[in-house]
Fold:
Amino acid sequence: MSTTTIANEEQVAEPGGFRHGDYLTCDKGWKSWAFTLDHKRIGVMYMLGVVFSFFLGGMFALVLRMELFTPNPTIIRSGDTYNQLFTLHGAIMIFLVIIPSIPAVLGNFVLPIMLGAKDVAFPRINLMSFHLYVIGMVMLVAAILSGGLDTGWTFYTPYSTVVSQTSVVMAVMGAFVLGFSSIFTGLNFVVTIHKMRPAGMTFFKMPLFLWSLYATAIIQILATPVLGITLLLIVVERTLGFGIFDPKMGGDPVLFQHFFWFYSHPAVYIMILPAMGVISELITTFSRRRIFGYSFIAYSSVLIAIFGFLVWGHHLFTSGQSPVATAIFSILTFSVSIPSAIKVFNWMATMYKGSISLQTPMLYAMSFLFLFGIGGLTGLFLGMLSVDLHLHDTYFVVAHFHYVMMGSALVGFFGGLHFWWPKIFGRMYDEKWGRIGAIGIFVGFNTCFFPQFIAGVQGMPRRYHQYEEIFRPYMVISTIGAFILGIASLIVFVNLYKSLKKPYDAPPNPWGGATLEWTVTSPPPHHNFDEEPKIYDPYNLEAVVWDPETRSYKHLEGQGLLGDGEQDA
Amino acid sequence: MSDTANKASPHGAHDEHGDPYAHIHVSSWQTLVAVFVALVLLTSLTVYVATYDIGRFELAVAMGIATIKCALVMGFFMHLKYDRALNRMVFLGSILFFTLFLGITVIDLDSSKPDIESYRRENPVKTAPATEESKPSGEATKPGDPKKSGEPGQHQKQK
Amino acid sequence: MSAMSDASHGAPEHPEHDPHLAHHFDDAQQQFDAAKMGMWTFLVTEILFFSGLFCAYAVYRSLYPDLFEGAAKYLNTTLGAINTLVLLFSSLTMAWAVRCAQLEQKKGLILTLALTLACAFGFLGIKYAEYSHKFHEGLLPGANYSAALHQGPEWLEEHGVDIHSHAPIPEAVEQAALAKDGRSYGLFFGIYFAMTGLHGIHVLAGIAVILFLLIRAIQGRIKRENSVIVDNVGLYWHLVDLIWIFLFPLLYLIN
Structure:
């Protein structure tokens, strides 16, 4: 296996220029991709999977929105079909898109380079993680083809174990496999960050993206196994009638919800934390200012990860949970807003008096601030017990989690993708169309989901394919927004794809970032660093200046280095 | 943290210019056997204790002994005593989150029980017949009757 | 398995390079530390993987103490205790195997690994005996539980069941048996089979990796430099032992 990926040692780089031996071209043939141990190639393959799944899940979303264009059946005849479509939309978007999006695509690519390392600690486990992702994807798609899935992505019992006639077992096993893929990515990241930091780069001198990936990885390691066992229990309940969640045997279906949300609430932070890390990098780079409140942002990532484990009960407010537990969970839920707000304030303070350039990634970062603000604050309403009893299972919830999942996590992913795209593929995309795509996503997203808040407050329940006439205006606007969002996504990816047709034209550091990945060529060489890397302070942006000769930013000679003790902030 | 590094290398051959594998810690076989003997004794103890009826302390004692055994296995067989502090923390972290998961879930223990009971009364199945509910001695799990485990005369075991 | 062999990935690029050191690590110490931490982190996921079942156990044991009390008497404490000893002994031999690998005692390594493997098979053999007994007596999870089957042949004949035929037990007899027991123990056996079954799967996985090590040891490919493979398999195997250390009193020793 490893023979396919040994570097072509003779392809030595010319210093400063574009090189032949970069990771994209150093090896040819599909096997050199499918069995590569190179974290960069694995990241790129993950990207293909995530983008494919994004459009698959997006298609389901558009069909759903079409159906909701009118109060009566529009294009879907039966409620069962509708149930299947929203389940598949949710399951695909969560398990195949959002969870792997930033850690497995961008994290895999950037993390070792940011650490000045040649690879993650366990390249084979990294590859295995990707293979598991593919297997899990195949199983989910097989479940769609062999009878669909109508349980909702939450697989609530006893519906999923005794009622549903769809291929729950296949889908659940798919999610189980994807869970292990996620665990192995997290395990790799934790060990890599702990053991492979270069000399001089302490935890508090790491780029904040790594902090967020670290916090994410901790959640992946601690929470995902619980999902694994929960899903296995669904399988044995469904096939062998174990009865652990079946009230007929004395089991407790609410226990399932506890198990499920012990994973799935922290999983929300698996999705959002990496996006926050990306935003930290984007804002500091495009404001050309040292990140404000570094240690607060770093600690708040870990705090969010820990608080994330303490609040799962707020999904069970109306499930017959005991009043004591409900009250405790409600109070704890509010606590999550503290580290989240700390981050937002620090980002704003970073931008304050910065020289902001509104390039495509920065547009995404600013969209993130706005959308995450709305998504986060509406979360407070839902955490409030009395309000939640009214809003539970209405479109308010749908709008809230789309603002967080799509509006924040995926916008963060898009921002990161545009930020690192020149580094990953060595090509600049068209800036004008990039900005149009970013603005289109922002406009389409708000048009789609803001009306759902209002519909939700007025009591429109989620997960129905028909609704009362009074909700029609909101649903019509929402559907129009969904199509704007769809078209904007298409613009984004067509624009990115078109850049691949060009020869390499990206300089090593097009944006002026100070982290280590910008010190190597675009795309990076096979082993990331041809010579021993110099370790720079990730946020000393004054030392990074535009060099018109190479049309790239670069570090001033001997400045901004870590480890000589003078640039401690 | 360098407590692993100063162990003498068992093979002089590796020591030409500073042994790069000096961090490997080798346990003496006497330690291993001693730990094994202790584990066997503790197993016997827990089986022996279980033949007596000690009421509500039963679970605590059994878990206490299991925890001691666990500590022995981790400390010596798994070298945690000689390992890096980080690995100890990793392990303790898992215990912390395990406790959190268990602890918070157990808070919510009784709340759905009445619903389950009434559901079972209304939806009898083959293996949970209605007649069972009507037997006064059979159903000991009514909400107001949580403790029945200490009852004497029920600890005959199948041998 | 690749977790353990990862340490040796990467071909040597320079002749003086340590062949056991992967290209992306600076030195042997870093590689060793990474491998150990990776394994410990993996064990964390294993512990949390089992935690769901322990949690279900805790919830149902405190909800239905009588059910656990009544059902546990159908478990064979002697076999459970013997299995505990078998696993403890295998842990000893595994720990000894690590020592042998570190000291490059090839014969000792092969012997201790073979003993560990034998114990693992022994454990599964005893487990098989227990399981088939449970199957025979209808002590099955949830919906498959049958109260009549473990009332003994006399009781069954009294109620007009031909114990030699494979015909399904009449509903009335099943009801009578349930009434005699007072309740269905299906939930307990659901938990019993889930916990011991998952543990058994881990034993099987352990057999696979120990077998892999044994082959490597016989080939003479385990040296002091890559003994961390044995160390890590050992950690996994001890964890399997640890889980059993808790399962045994929780399932078998309920009064």
